[in-house]
């Protein structure tokens, strides 16, 4: 597997390698009545051409905001991009004029939303909606755009696309509509596809179909995929690399095997321990105690410290950085991986091992 | 009937359909029956609303009469049949003069009412269209952009709505037209003073629709704001606008009658239902009941018809009503 998760390059220069998307120290805050919410607080990652990246985290961890920031779809204000750079295909897209950003959206970066039901306009046929996008970005005639809409419906496995293309969203099932959304996203052959929880609203059998479809199409068209989900099972199937987010920060990153098989951050460990499995039958299912911190009142140092079973004094005083952990290329935001935590790392990993096999 | 018999009677079309499907690559979904669009559904419900259909019929008949009537009917409202003779009492309705003859210059009442229908319906519908147009634009901008612009526009609406509109319209009509205004002027004046309700309605619709996910999805594929407003949001807001618009027509026809009756409306040489009433007023004591009666009846019937249609539209577009 190629190594794409790296420590960010020094700020200012375009990415030297063939990274398609390079997000550096991104900070997106929301200014609301009660104060400021640091929804994304210093997130960095990069994604190579044709690669897949999974962003995992619970609700409110900042994964969707990260995606919306990349698309520049946030309303400013209340949102504010406080700091950071987003390099896409050699351009810093936080600084390109809005007019040019419009040409990138849908054309070079496409997004698939969570709710296929509400993401399609109820008063237009699906063909109209796909063709509109094609007409907008590619200099083609109406007829040609329409043909392309039919073609992309065929590509996503919708039978009788010539008839389906003239139907309204309400005439289709949820899985069918998500296929339409994917067809729409692919109609302009984007370099990057952002899928924001594409299967959350679908039932399990359809989920598998849609994921399979995303995977084959992504391989066929060679576009990069950024998959946002809270379902660890989905990422295990789909992606090369994983970022785990917690309270607006990246807490762990690495390739799929590293993060899912040998997690090194207590939060990731907790997430994996809380998945029910056959081996753990009979034991108590472990949970991560407590709740996500109040965004107005974040813990002073490590944001996971109040819920962390391995936390000690240092965690309340010094905010941890992303440290090298485990095998090559894996990073974790935890003091366990500094010299100060040396004595504690072994027992923590053992506890995790035990929790994974028999439950706590 | 047994299972086999049912199978035997499968219509040929369906069999052909099944045969066709065999060739399809992955027929894991059925292509549903052709289903109806929102407007087809609404029309279906509308058709079952009896009063609304009657209203629609009356309106259609009135519009046809207003358009072709003056060409067919032998009298012209501009020519005075017996200019040298002024009578106190005209002639009551007869086979020759269906609605009778006026007192005074002995003009044909049917001719007056039919020509009046032209002007009155033109003013009613014209000012509705213009007013709804203004209201929709203002409301759309207000609701979509929000913030300062929204605040400013809605405060203007508040100010406009706090005016005693009928009197303001009278004053403005008198100032601009001096009682001899053209129908276009009256349309303009009505439109300028009747868009506020629509703009509030459209604003509220836009406020809710712009938060829907398909708007964000449209933005995510790079659609411009102007196109989002007019192509993605407006069609979703159309049915309440249509309902509101239909009810405005009736109000405007009454307003026209009102200001024409008071002599501030359309040039009196051009008949409208309002100024027919105004001219008849002084002759009523002599017993010319047919003179005001038919134009008054025309106003009532038209406004009722319009309101029935409006009710029908509202029920037809209401997803909760099942007709």
What are the key terms here?
heterodimer; A: 360 residues; alpha/beta; eight-stranded mixed β-sheet; four-stranded antiparallel β-sheet; 12 helices; 12 strands; 21% strand; globular; disordered N terminus; B: 323 residues; mainly alpha; 13 helices; 68% helix
Short structural summary:
Chain A has twelve helices and twelve strands.
- Tell me the fraction of residues in β-strands of chain B, as a range: under 5%
Derived structural class of chain B: mainly alpha
- Largest inter-chain contact set: A-B, 39 and 27 residues
The overall pLDDT average of chain A reads: 80
For this structure, the quaternary state is: heterodimer
Cα radius of gyration of chain B in angstroms: 27 Å
Number of helices of chain B: 13
Could you give the distance between the termini of chain A?
A: 34 Å
For the termini of chain B, the CA-CA separation is 33 Å
C-alpha Rg of chain A (nearest Å) = 21 Å
Number of strands of chain A: 12
Low-confidence segments of chain B, ≥5 residues, pLDDT <50? 1-11, 21-31
H-E order of chain B: HHHHHHHHHHHHH
Q: What gross morphology of chain B would you assign?
A: elongated
Would you kindly provide a written description of the structure presented here, covering whatever features stand out?
The complex is a heterodimer of chains A (360) and B (323). Chain A is α/β, with parallel strands linked by helices. Chain A is built from twelve helices and twelve strands. Chain A has an eight-stranded mixed beta sheet, sandwiched between helices. By secondary structure, chain B is mainly α. Helices cover 68% and strands 0% of the residues of chain B. Chain B has 13 helices and no strands. Chain B has helices spanning 3-8, 12-22, 38-47, 50-72, 109-145, 147-162, 165-177, 183-192, 196-209, 213-220, 225-261, 273-280, 290-317. In chain B, helix 5 packs parallel to helix 9 (196-209), helix 5 (109-145) runs parallel beside helix 13 and helix 11 runs parallel beside helix 12 (273-280). Residues 1-11 and 21-31 of chain B have low confidence and may be disordered. The chains are: A alpha/beta (360), B mainly alpha (323). The A-B interface holds A 71, 73, 101-107, 110-111, 113, 115, 118-124, 132-133, 136-137, 157-160, 163-164, 167-168, 170-173, 176, 181, 184 and B 24-29, 31-32, 35, 37-38, 212-214, 216-224, 231-232, 235-236.
């Amino acid at each position: 597997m190629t190594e794409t998760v790296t420590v960010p390059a020094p700020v200012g220069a375009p990415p030297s390698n063939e990274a398609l998307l390079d997000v550096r120290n991104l900070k997106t805050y929301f200014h609301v009545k009660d104060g400021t919410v640091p929804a994304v607080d210093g997130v960095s990652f990069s994604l190579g051409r044709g690669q897949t990246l999974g962003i995992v985290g619970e609700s409110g961890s900042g994964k969707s905001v990260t995606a919306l920031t990349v698309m520049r779809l946030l309303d400013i204000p209340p949102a504010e991009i406080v700091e950071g750079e987003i390099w896409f295909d050699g351009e810093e897209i936080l600084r390109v004029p809005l007019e040019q950003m419009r040409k990138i959206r849908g054309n070079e970066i496409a997004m698939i939303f969570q709710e296929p039901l509400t993401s399609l306009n109820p008063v237009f046929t699906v063909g109209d909606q796909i063709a509109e996008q094609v007409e907008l970005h590619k200099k083609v005639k109406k007829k040609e755009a329409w043909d392309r809409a039919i073609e992309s419906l065929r590509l996503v496995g919708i039978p009788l696309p010539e008839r389906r293309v003239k139907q309204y969203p309400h005439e289709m099932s949820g899985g069918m509509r998500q296929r339409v959304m994917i067809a729409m996203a692919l109609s302009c052959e984007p370099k990057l596809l952002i899928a924001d929880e594409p299967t959350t609203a679908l039932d399990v059998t359809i989920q598998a179909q849609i994921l399979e479809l995303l995977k084959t199409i992504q391989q066929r068209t060679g576009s990069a995929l950024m998959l946002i989900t809270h379902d660890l099972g989905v990422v295990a199937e789909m992606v090369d690399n994983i970022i785990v987010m917690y309270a607006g920060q990246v807490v762990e990153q690495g390739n799929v095997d590293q993060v899912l098989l040998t997690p090194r951050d207590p939060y990731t460990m907790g997430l994996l321990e809380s998945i029910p499995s056959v081996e753990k039958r009979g034991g108590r299912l472990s949970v991560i105690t407590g709740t996500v911190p109040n965004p107005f009142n974040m813990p002073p140092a490590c944001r996971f410290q109040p819920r962390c079973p391995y936390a000690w004094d240092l965690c309340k005083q010094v905010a941890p950085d992303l440290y090298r952990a485990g095998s090559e290329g894996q990073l974790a935001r935890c003091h366990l991986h500094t010299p100060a935590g040396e004595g504690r790392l072994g027992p923590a990993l053992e506890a995790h091992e035990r929790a994974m096999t028999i439950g706590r | 009937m047994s299972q086999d018999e049912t199978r035997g009677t499968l219509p040929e079309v369906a069999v052909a359909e099944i045969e066709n499907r065999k060739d399809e690559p992955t027929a894991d979904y059925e292509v549903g029956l052709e289903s109806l669009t929102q407007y087809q559904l609404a029309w279906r419900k509308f058709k079952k609303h009896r009063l609304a259909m009657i209203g629609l019929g009356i309106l259609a008949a009135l519009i046809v009469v207003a358009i072709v009537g003056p060409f067919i009917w032998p009298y012209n409202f501009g020519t005075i049949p017996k200019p040298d003779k002024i009578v106190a009492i005209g002639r009551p309705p007869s086979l020759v003069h269906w609605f009778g003859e006026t007192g005074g210059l002995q003009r044909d009442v049917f001719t007056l009412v039919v020509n009046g229908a032209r002007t009155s319906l033109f003013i009613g519908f014209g000012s509705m269209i213009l007013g709804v147009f203004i209201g929709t634009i203002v409301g759309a901008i207000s609701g979509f952009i929000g913030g300062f612009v929204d605040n400013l526009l809605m405060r203007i609406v508040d100010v406009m709505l706090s005016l005693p509109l009928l009197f303001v319209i009278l004053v403005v009509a008198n100032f601009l037209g001096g009682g001899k205004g053209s129908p276009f002027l009256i349309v303009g004046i009505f439109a300028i003073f009747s868009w506020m309700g629509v703009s509030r309605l459209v604003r509220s619709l836009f406020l809710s629709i712009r938060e829907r996910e398909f708007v964000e999805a449209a933005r995510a594929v790079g659609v411009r704001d102007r196109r989002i407003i007019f192509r993605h949001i407006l069609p979703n807001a159309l049915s309440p606008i249509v309902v509101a618009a239909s009810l405005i027509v009736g109000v405007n026809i009454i307003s026209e009658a009102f200001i024409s009756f008071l002599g501030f409306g359309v040039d009196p040489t051009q008949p409208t239902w309002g100024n027919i009433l105004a001219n008849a007023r002084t002759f009523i004591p002599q017993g010319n009941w047919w003179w005001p009666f038919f134009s008054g009846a025309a106003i009532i019937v038209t406004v009722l018809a319009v309101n029935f249609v409006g009710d029908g539209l509202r029920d037809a577009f209401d997803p909760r009503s099942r007709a």
